[in-house]
User: What shape does this take?
Amino acid sequence: MGSPPAGGSRTGAGGLRAVRLHGWNTTLTLLGAWLLLIAISGLHRADFLAQQTVLAVTFTMAITGVLAVGQALVAISGGILDLSQPTSLILSAYVTSVLLALGVPTVVVVVVAVALGAAWGCLNALVIVFGKLNPIIVTLATNFIGVAALFLVFQSAQAPINSALRAFGRGYFLGLPDIWWPMVFLVLVVGWLLPRTRYGRRTIAVGGNRVAAQARGVSLRRTRFGVFTAAGACAGMAGLLFAGANAAFSPTAGSDFLLPVIAAVILAGVSLAGGRGNILLLLLSVGFLSTVPTSLAFFGLTSAWQTVFQGAILILAVAIDGYREKRARR
Amino acid sequence: MTQTTAPPRARPAQSSATGARSRARELLTGAVASIAITLLVVIVVGLAWVGPAFLSTSNITIIGSFVAVPLLVGACAGFALLAGVVDLSIGSMVGFSGAVFASLVVAGWGPWPAGAAAVVLCLVCGTINALAIVVFGASPIAATLGMLTALAGLNRVIVGRQGAVTALIPDLFDFTSRLALSLPLVFLLALVVVALATVVVTSMRLGRHIRAVGGDEVAATRAGISVLRVRFLALLFSAMGAGIGGILYVGQLGSASNSLGTGLEFQVYAALMIGGYSILRGGVGNPAGGAMGLLVVAGVANILDVQAISPYYVNIIVGLLLLAAVLIDRLRGGDAYE
Assistant: This one.
């Protein structure tokens, strides 16, 4: 298993410092792991360090990154995980495809897709808040219901090939895929705003200590509604990019994203217990995880191996994270 | 998690007369009672809609063979739930075990050594889960999600490009399709395992220890129970069940495909939660209730199947049942999430 994390012995009063240093530790670890992966792959095959690789990695990053922002918001607010993202993603992608085929203007479609994702998140929040039920169980159930309901509506769909959205999904801006830019924009905006706005700070406070936040007059209900609606809107936006970037898709296509997204959120140092996490670090964790498939391909390994590595990285990361927290608490 | 507001409902080991009385009350109003009623409703609906054929031996044989492996896997995974360490990797582990078993048999191994190897490899994975969770303190959901992902990948690697390994093993096929008392033997054996697990959980010391560890870690430690050992054991048990389940599936299906076991963990845990377990909090639920949860889902699936209704409705009903089950659990005094 993993060796003890770098940082030496931190005991007693050092605990607080350890918590503060945590962000930097994660940043350096992620950056180190990513550079190491690039270096090893580059040494193995020099042609790895080419523009093709950059394009493949950034393309993979886009949808995972947008979903990861939503997932991270839920986790930071103490909502643990939103397991229904596959449904909101495909719901938005499907409606996008249908509306575009009907000739609805692209701007309207974009608004509808994001709003639809937000509505789905709102629905989750409704059950969670008024039922006082655990989000992970509620979203597990709503995902069961959602994917099945989508299957009753369609088996396979695709956005019109000559639509502006599909052109966007294939296009490039400043040498990088079009769909990569909205993701970066979203991560930067949410990452910047979260610790700096009242709403963002409330989200963090509710996740960190619900009782204390409530005592200071933060409405739990309103915060939960806000967080799940925002997370749903992220999934709606991801669905838009998904419909633009992919050919035909089925209602189950969304489930492929769930595990990499959760892995990215945990690797970025977001605590599943809530209250801790830096959205900006998602750029590093999503980038690292998105480099793995391309890198493995250069080592001649099939795509099945990429899943093996993703899982192994996740186990290692949470083990190290757990160990670190155990020592910080001592 | 830190969201619990209500005091932990873990019932401490009781041995006095009041214990017996409260246990009797529990039988009438507790989680097992509501799942038993749900099962009864499913049977009544089945009889009313499908007719007497719903309870005919041939139909019960169909349901029984369908639900046998999930029953076994669920009974073993239930130990991990009770100990407070949910193991999400069981679905992929079933597929992994099946793939290992089938390809070893194809490579010329005998069924017994191949089966032993598959179970041992699953136990190794279970050990890795336990090391990460118990020793390093990783979150169970996150760590076993990693194992789920890794094993799903390994399954695809082992199975290879064809997408399935065909391994027809006459002895195993005979075993999995044999009838005893005019019901499938594997189904009856799974029920025996469930019954044994229920006895262990409700009236043996090991079971009390497992529930204590899941209910309140600190109190259990003070009572001199090794939390580490109990959780380690529970995770190994869960892995063993998945290992055996994968082998039985290969017997039933005659092959191991790269999608074997995919999503099984969510199906099984949804059914177990309908049956009174919790995936977030240890110490609640019992194997008999969990088994009834699986039977409810299998019964619903069977009714829809016989009536030629789209199987997607099963998942919609499972989702609604799951929400209803956790809502009822909360109204009965379970954890409220705010």
